[in-house]
Design brief:
The chain has helices spanning 4-16, 18-28, 45-52, 64-74, 113-126, 146-157, 160-172, 175-182, and strands at 35-39, 56-61, 82-86, 99-105, 127-138, 184-192, 197-204. The protein is an alpha/beta fold. The longest helix has 14 residues, at 113-126. The structure holds S-adenosylmethionine.
Length: 212
């Protein structure tokens, strides 16, 4: 039996994000035929947009129940250009430089710092040298709007550990901190959902000596 959280995510959050999912494609300049990996794809909301727009898309997540919903969204209609697999974002099952685009949507704020770092380094590793990373996550600081209030409430209800990670992410400066940590160069950014979310298009910069 499915637990309520994946169903809640599918019914509420995915619906709330529909327009932003579509906007993300044009924001990043994604075209049919591009190879795209969505890390921590959850119920496949973003992945379904990639598939629908003719990209060769892959989505990974660690939660089997989330992936059941993701598969049900991309597999009917024989979308043969989409792969959904269970994997740990800290150890991606792909070769170096496999993808033109790698997206991480709403997944970094809830991870502990050690996993954030592994995730970003893995995202870099599988992105082509001339490819891009697309990050979407909470703005830091959050604006004082009802959408931001709703988001903070959802984060609080998601559990103590989850909320502590969210607060830590906010305190460190959100995606700005993630870009610095991953040695990523920001090309552009846009605020969406009443400024509660920030979208960033970034490129990997060479990692200097002393960094793993
Ligand atoms: C908030 S959801 C991500 C939302 C999704 N990217 C979207 O656009 O709607 C966070 C996801 O991270 C996944 N996750 C947590 N730890 C993970 C790990 N170590 N490896 C892969 N996925 C992980 C969870 O199962 C969950 O589906």
């Amino acid at each position: 039996m499915l637990s309520p959280f994946p169903l809640f995510y599918f019914a509420v959050i995915d619906r709330l994000l529909r327009r932003i999912r579509a906007f993300l494609l044009s924001f990043a300049g994604m075209r049919a035929g591009a190879t795209v990996l969505d890390i921590c794809c959850a119920t496949g909301g973003q992945l379904a947009f990639f598939a629908k727009h003719g990209m060769h898309a892959a989505g990974i997540d660690i939660n089997a129940q989330m992936l059941r919903i993701a598969r049900s969204r991309v597999q009917p209609g024989a979308v043969s250009n989409t792969l959904v697999c269970r994997a740990n974002a800290g150890h991606l099952p792909f070769r170096d430089e496999s993808f033109d685009f790698v997206s991480i949507c709403l997944a970094l704020h809830e991870k502990p710092p050690w996993l954030q770092e592994q995730l970003v380094l893995e995202a870099r590793r599988v992105t082509r040298e001339d490819g891009f990373l697309v990050l979407m996550d909470y703005s830091a600081p959050m604006p004082k709007t009802w959408t931001a209030g709703l988001a903070v409430t959802i984060e609080f209800l998601a559990g103590r550990q989850h909320f502590l990670c969210f607060r830590d992410y906010q305190r460190k400066g959100g995606l700005k901190f993630i870009l610095d940590m991953g040695n990523l160069h920001e090309i552009k950014q846009e605020l969406v959902l009443g400024n509660a979310l920030t979208l960033v298009l970034a490129k990997p910069m060479p990692i200097g000596p002393g960094r793993v």
